[in-house]
Amino acid sequence: MKRKIGKKARATRLVRRDRPDTRTDAAGRVHLALHRDPRSGETHVALESPLFEEPWQNDVAAAAAQTAYASFAGGPSVSRAVALARDMMGSTSRIADGFLARAPSGSVACKAGCAHCCYQSVGVTPPEALAIVDHLRKTLPGAALARVASRVAEAHERTRGLSAEERFSPEHPCVFLESGRCSIYEVRPLSCRGMNSLDAGECEKRLHEPEARAAFLASGAGSRAFLEPIRAFHAVSAGLQLALAELSGLDMSPLDLTAATHLLLTSGDGPARAWVAGGASLESARGGDSTGDLTIRNVSGSVGSSG
After folding, report:
1. With 60 as the cut, is the pLDDT of residue 74 above it?
2. pLDDT classification of 298: cutoffs 50, 70, 90
3. Does residue 2 have a pLDDT over 90?
4. Which of 247-263 are b and which e, b meaning 16 or more Cβ less than 10 Å from the residue's Cβ?
5. What residues does each domain of the chain span?
6. What is the pTM (predicted TM-score) of this model?
7. How many Cα neighbours within 13 Å face the side chain of 161?
8. Which among 7, 81, 168, 235 could disulfide-bond with 127, CB atoms 3.0 to 4.6 Å apart, if both were Cys?
């Protein structure tokens, strides 16, 4: 994201947003405004009102939206969506790494080979899914790609129709988890980049002990985790989703990682091209939208129901 966080905007004028492809959310709201600098003629994106309680999160969301808007200035395309997702992934990691560098020594429990959080449904945005499949196609030879596609298909068949609670189980590892490590670490989803546990033992017990897992799911409470990286992920994702939905008219409904990867690997380029054209071609891969969940909103730091 190229826009500097906290940079004071110069005098601007509002750009009309009554374009036919501008979309509102389920409540009929529009969250972004376009402003044009009368001197330079440059257009920048701003939030109509705060999405998050922390000012820095709103700055990050606005910067992500600006990057997304600029990336699609020439019109949506699959290649631009992939490049944008890569940009958002890198930005999320840089922000998270900045927070982690200031964390007290030994407070964050996550480390290489620790994969207790990799046994659950993972939500992704359409650009993330496109970037992951693009990475697989470009880095795996034909036989290896076919094996991955087969493994994804098997996982999809086992997990489709299951609730998020049922997916949280040692029986349902992430399809990209290999020997305790992420096989797509370079393009891992935004949500994975934000998660940093403060107690690996708690994560292990909650996953592998049925009683502990049931109690955790029944409580509705979040895990003990470093909140700032999680909030960074939510801010970046919010800016990305809002910009592409409101300013480019694209369907940004959340997708399930396994289902989306399966769809894109088995259906050729058709669904991706239809999506950038404004269609709902990824609808069959949609995952649960948890933005209304109070626990998620508290963890993400979102304001009201707009986060």
Report:
1. yes
2. confident
3. no
4. bbbbbbbbbbbbbbbbb
5. 55-300
6. 0.87
7. 2
8. 81
